[in-house]
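ok so heres the complex, two chains, lmk if somethin looks off
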Amino acid sequence: MSRLVAVFHDEAPLLAAVRAAREHRASIVDVYTPYAVHGLDEALGLRGTRLPWVTLAGGLCGMAGAIALQVWCAVLDWPLDVGGKPHQSALAFLPITFEATILLGGLATAGAFFWRSRLSPLAELRPVAAGVTDDAMALVLKLDGAGPDERAALHGLLLAAGAREIREEDR
Amino acid sequence: MIADAHLLRPSWVEGRPTLRQITDDVSRPLTARPTLGWWACFAVASLALAWGAASATYEVATGIGTWGLNKTVGWAFDITNFVFWIGIGHAGTLISAILLLFRQKWRTSISRSAEAMTIFAVMCAGLFPLLHMGRPWFGFWIFPYPNTRGPLWVNFRSPLVWDVVAISTYFTISFVFWYVGMIPDLATLRDRAAGRGDLWRRKIFGLLSLGWDGSWRTWSRYETLSLILAGLATPLVLSVHSIVSMDFATGLVPGWHTTLFPPYFVAGAIFSGFGMVLTLLILTRKVMGLERYITIHHLEAMAKITLLTGSMVGFAYLTELFLAWFGGNPYERAAFWNRATGPFAWAYWTMVTCNAILPQLLWSKRVRTSVPILFVLSLLVNVGMWFERFVIIVTSLHRDFLPSSWWFYKPTIIEVGILVGSFGLFFTCFLLFIRALPMVAMWEVKGVAAAAARAGEAHP
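and the predicted structre for the whole thing:
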């Protein structure tokens, strides 16, 4: 894929460049930043993540699993008389059910995040520009099929927004 | 007008550093040689840890008889230490999770170290129930797994089993939250370690940072993940100390059997935790030269929470006394009369002085902004909250219903050694942490600094 990488050193020019590129209907591959820049989600018009649904599903699994385990162990498999309390003492099963809900909800969400973002100890790292984890920010545009006029227009737009460095590369 | 706005919103990062400067300030101590102060602290901490390890080894090899427990006082030092350390952890979660949900910007530069404190404190806490088992190698019996004894399952109606589940969950979720929060900073450290001599550093941070490249798609999900984990950790932290309090509240012992316990314990936990955060951060900001990021405003904000939770704890003491009298139960009255005037009265009044009376000094802004006074107060809060748990446990037990069972409790040198050792473990871990990992969340501070710069441009 042929692409255009523009490097910025402040968030204001970066946001301006993102807005200009979207107005120009350029195809934005991604933006790389050292911190979560306020307002970039809106500028990029990204669809919201579905991670909360994973939390809900994980939490429900934890809840159902904890209730099933406790009822099966304490009521069905070996009903043990503890101080004359009823075997199916649902209220006493609540704390463990609550904790299991939280535990599975949290672990499922973190796991889904790692999986979806392709983060793993074996992940191959190809930094887009020097310093994007320090003080630089990079906007990457797709160039496939763009003619010389289009390239010049994109360069002009990025420079006008305040890019410090622009280069084309193939990946 | 502008001066007023400055008073209302103090700047949480001093001197408007650039992004590069923030990276440098936080990462520099990790590659520089440790200071003499660090070595001195580390020597003391590891000596304490060694003493604790020796005491624990002797106890496990010989048996629980090496402790001062008896038939009447079956819980004392160990459970006191357990509740104390769990409580310490709670401030870390409050800072990292609850203040995130409330969008409190001042949490950014202290959340990482507070969360690390949570993890080390929960590790220390977990030691005590394990050692109290006497045969810790059978500790796994507490988990419900298919076994050859029936299978005989654990009693799911017991608060002790709830406790195991709650604390394992708390440790796991806190650890995940801490680690996830660190990934962008680990990537920063990986990219800084570009020199020839940095091969191992680059490899280790490379593995730990999971190939983080700063992609916005990842950042966007990352922010959602942080909010979800914070939203889960908030009810979790309240449940953990509520369940710890139920270890006592569900027992029919005068002094324990009260519905006041869950909120009272949670407030006390956060209070004691903030005492410990203040102690640690006042020391580390000095030792690591991070006064620009952990400012006097941070200390003052923490002092305010200490004042609030300390007052809640004081109110709970009064409520307990009132209800013991108003409830009309003679055993309950006797238990509280014994606390305030009996053989452990000195412990009771130490607790009242340190937790309910002295923190009231924090109403004064001069006290809240004086680092030496804050340091002394934070140490006293730690002492007071340790004694609170000791008072609740020992004074309620040592006078049993039958006067023939009345007994006294005195810790042995082994128990004291294990307590000292837990402090050693905690401080050793913390000292290694501030040397090996970034103790200030660089990416969060960068976000706050950028927001301050934006506000500055809007109102020059």
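quick notes: Chain A is about 50% helix and 15% strand. thats all i got rn
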